[in-house]
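Task card 7
Instruction: Convert sequence to structure tokens.
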Amino acid sequence: MNPNFKDISPNSSRRQIIKTALTFMTGLTTTSLVSFLMSKSTKPAQAIVVQRPNEFELKGEGTEIKYSILNGAPQLDYRTQNISLHFSGNQIQTLDTDIGTLLTVIISKPPNPNFGGNIVRLSLLLPIINLVIGNREIPVQTEAILTTGKTSGSIRTPLFGQLQSYQTLVLKGTARYV
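Output:
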């Protein structure tokens, strides 16, 4: 049920509590207070406590990705038919955005960085998900982007034309709190 602020007096302490609770935000793995159930009666509002998933298992287009934050340490496993890579800690760049959390890892680099070549990055978009306490998992659909970027290396030869190309992966799987 969506709260309707027209039903609550503008000077009401109940309205202020609801506005404060609806704007309260927390980190990816903590419990957060994010919504209220409101009735039109004089009963006080009831808070619903939710959890954010700390583990994602995703598959699609010949790719498997598992991302988790356990004991505060982020881990990402990336598997295709030819590649199996594990990333942890600061190997995983994290950026919170309005459309979710963007995780980026480097899949491959040029063999000799002095001469340049291609660098491939995987960027995974994790949507914001709230799990009701007691419901430990939910189906999820998201996307990842493989970005191939040309680099000139330390020789600094100028590069011309489009320097990045993209491959989008549609992924489905499960988000859970463990």
